[in-house]
Amino acid sequence: MKGLFKGLGVTMKALTSKKVTYPYPDKPLEMPDRFRGIQYFEPDKCIVCNMCARICPTDCITLTGKPNPDPEKKGKVIDTFDINFEICILCDLCTEVCPTEAIVMTNNFELATYSRDELFKNMEWLNENNQNIRQENNSAMPKGGARKNV
């Protein structure tokens, strides 16, 4: 009988305390600065060095390029850039090795879908994913694209 009253006391105390739930869909979550979310990709900055695809531990990045059609300019032009978020572990290695910072991490994390086929994201989708870019990427990027040593 004593245990029953103890349990009721705990229940009554919980009923009168402040609620700790969060109104998630109505109010967006504030993620920490170092949160690793979905990548943002700028195709204009990409030099098709393939470093991101080489360092990826899950081989989820597909990057192809073609020779530059302008004969005066050397190098390659990006043709396709795809990420398979079905196996991507959001490790941030692709953004660390990118010499031009064409790939940066955002605070976006919503990738829930009903089909696995929708987890293959192409260059256009990644370029449109430009909301909630991490603050360190916005402030540390000068116009030329190289990082500042802080």
From TrEMBL:
Residues bound to [4Fe-4S] cluster 1: C46, C49, C52, C98
Record GO cellular component, one term: plasma membrane
Class in the EC hierarchy, top level: translocase
GO biological process: aerobic respiration
One Pfam family in the UniProt entry: Fer4_7
Annotated binding of [4Fe-4S] cluster 2, by residue: C56, C88, C91, C94
UniProt EC number: 7.1.1.-
Bound cofactor: record note: Binds 2 [4Fe-4S] clusters per subunit.
Location(s), subcellular: Cell membrane
Span list, region Disordered: 131-150
InterPro entries: 4Fe4S_Fe-S-bd, 4Fe4S_Fe_S_CS, NADH_quinone_OxRdtase_chainI
Residues of the 4Fe-4S ferredoxin-type domain: 37-66, 79-108
Sorted UniProt keywords: 4Fe-4S, Cell membrane, Iron, Iron-sulfur, Membrane, Metal-binding, NAD, Oxidoreductase, Quinone, Translocase, Ubiquinone
Catalysed reactions, as listed in the record: a quinone + NADH + 5 H(+)(in) = a quinol + NAD(+) + 4 H(+)(out)
An example Gene Ontology molecular-function term: quinone binding
Origin superkingdom: Bacteria
Cofactor: [4Fe-4S] cluster
Family in the record: Belongs to the complex I 23 kDa subunit family.
Role: NDH-1 shuttles electrons from NADH, via FMN and iron-sulfur (Fe-S) centers, to quinones in the respiratory chain. The immediate electron acceptor for the enzyme in this species is believed to be ubiquinone. Couples the redox reaction to proton translocation (for every two electrons transferred, four hydrogen ions are translocated across the cytoplasmic membrane), and thus conserves the redox energy in a proton gradient.
Assembly, per entry: NDH-1 is composed of 14 different subunits. Subunits NuoA, H, J, K, L, M, N constitute the membrane sector of the complex.
UniProt name for this protein: NADH-quinone oxidoreductase subunit I
Organism: Paenibacillus dendritiformis C454
Gene symbol of the encoding locus: nuoI
